[in-house]
Specification:
about 325 residues; TIM Barrel; globular; binds 1,4-dihydronicotinamide adenine dinucleotide; binds the ligand O=C1O[C@H](CO)[C@@H](O)[C@@H]1O; oxidoreductase; D-arabinose 1-dehydrogenase [NAD(P)+] activity; AKR; diacetyl reductase ((S)-acetoin forming) (NAD+) activity
């Protein structure tokens, strides 16, 4: 019997812990492209939106701080062409750790680059604090500052909670409140989320947690915690990041072959059926000719996919600056292969 299919672009979830009613489309467009892929990202984004995709995940940091300008241009062109209105889109941006104590400034810079009056979701990108270090040659802020020995450097007296305290205040601020519809965090673990919930100065609790999430890192414990707290989980690097290694997992091919669908459709359908949001990245506009549906996978297939990450969870995003965070341990190159 063939699987029931549904339109991917119609899958959405209601966010909790918000001031107004906010829905997030479950299928989004990731934009962590290389700095030399600005034009390609813009072209692919326009194709995605023309195909019905409404959720755009970006960040101040992406493309060395340049991607938001390309996205802003794409959005303006799509609006002028009559494809969408601003209100049709769900735009997420994030505060990078070098703006850890200047969240409102970061938001302002993103809004300007994106050419919009508000974002739908503002996230703290990492629970880390970096100093502001300027590149002598370009005059631009360095996203990942390192010392002369190549070690990441952190703000000595910084406390990551300050960033979310500030993001929380933006929502209540009469001057800035209308610039953000929902707030959240990224790369937090359960302990850090518990700290946010225990902090009485934080009145607006996170609506969203964005973390690496895919069949090899199924984040069961975090998802359970978030479900209890009304936090919607967005999975980043759903395909295992560059090169899409997840799509080569034999279990996904087997399930896909059984139903006559591609491993990509299997992964995306797994996310949607688990009430998660998924934000894969591509700069290939032609992909959006094929990406239309998700499928109602049988429970046994969902469990089989859940099992992949149970015995040997594998984290694909391995940033040296994150090694100070529990669970974000560095791998050697050999382990990485
Ligand atoms: N909050 C955070 O710290 C992070 C957030 N993100 C967000 O999540 C998004 C997605 O994660 P990424 O790490 O960028 O990678 P991803 O897991 O989406 O994989 C991207 C790779 O998959 C390939 N791909 C895409 N569609 C494909 C298809 N249909 N068939 C075959 N290959 C395909 C792409 O060409 C690219 O090489 C980012 O772009 C960004 O928006 C990503 C990393 C960290
Ligand atoms: O969002 C992000 O993207 C990069 C990796 O692609 C990662 O460092 C950051 O959190």
């Amino acid at each position: 019997m063939s699987l029931q299919k549904k339109l991917l672009t119609e899958a959405k979830l209601k966010l909790h812990n918000t001031k107004t009613e906010v829905f997030i489309p479950q299928y989004g467009f990731g934009t962590a492209s290389a700095p030399d892929q600005l034009e390609e990202t813009k072209t692919a984004l326009k194709a995605a939106v023309k195909a019905g995709v409404r959720n755009i995940d970006t960040a101040r940091y992406y493309g060395n701080g340049h991607i938001e300008y390309a996205i802003g241009e794409a959005i303006q062109e799509l609006i002028k062409e009559g494809v969408v209105t601003r209100e049709d889109l769900f735009i997420t941006t994030k505060v990078w750790p070098n703006y850890w104590n200047r969240a409102a400034d970061s938001l302002e810079t993103s809004l300007k680059a994106l050419q919009v009056d508000y974002v739908d979701l503002l996230l703290q990108h990492w629970p880390l604090c970096f100093p502001q270090v300027v590149n002598d040659k370009t005059g631009e802020l360095i996203g990942k500052p390192h010392d002369e020995n190549g070690e990441p450097i952190y703000e000595k007296d910084g406390d990551y909670i300050v960033t979310f305290q500030q993001i929380n205040k933006i929502l209540d601020d009469p001057a800035n409140g209308k610039k953000v519809r929902a707030i959240g965090v990224s790369n937090y673990d359960v302990l850090k989320l518990e700290r946010v919930f225990a902090d009485e100065s934080i009145k607006n609790k996170p609506s969203v947690l964005q973390v690496e999430l895919n069949p090899q890192l199924n984040q069961t414990e975090l998802i359970d915690f978030c479900t209890k707290k009304g936090i919607t989980v967005i999975g980043y690097s759903p395909l295992g990041s560059s090169g899409a290694p997840i799509l080569k997992l034999p279990e996904l091919k087997e399930i896909g072959d059984k139903h006559g669908i591609k491993p990509y459709d299997v992964v995306i359908s797994w996310f949607i059926s688990k009430n998660l949001v998924v934000i894969p990245r591509t700069i290939n506009p032609d992909r959006f000719k094929d990406i239309k549906y998700y499928y109602e996978l049988p429970e046994e297939d969902i469990k089989k996919i859940d099992q992949i990450g149970e015995t040997k969870p594998y984290r694909h995003i391995d940033e040296d600056f994150a090694h100070v965070l529990p669970g974000f341990t560095g791998r050697t190159k050999t382990e990485n292969e």
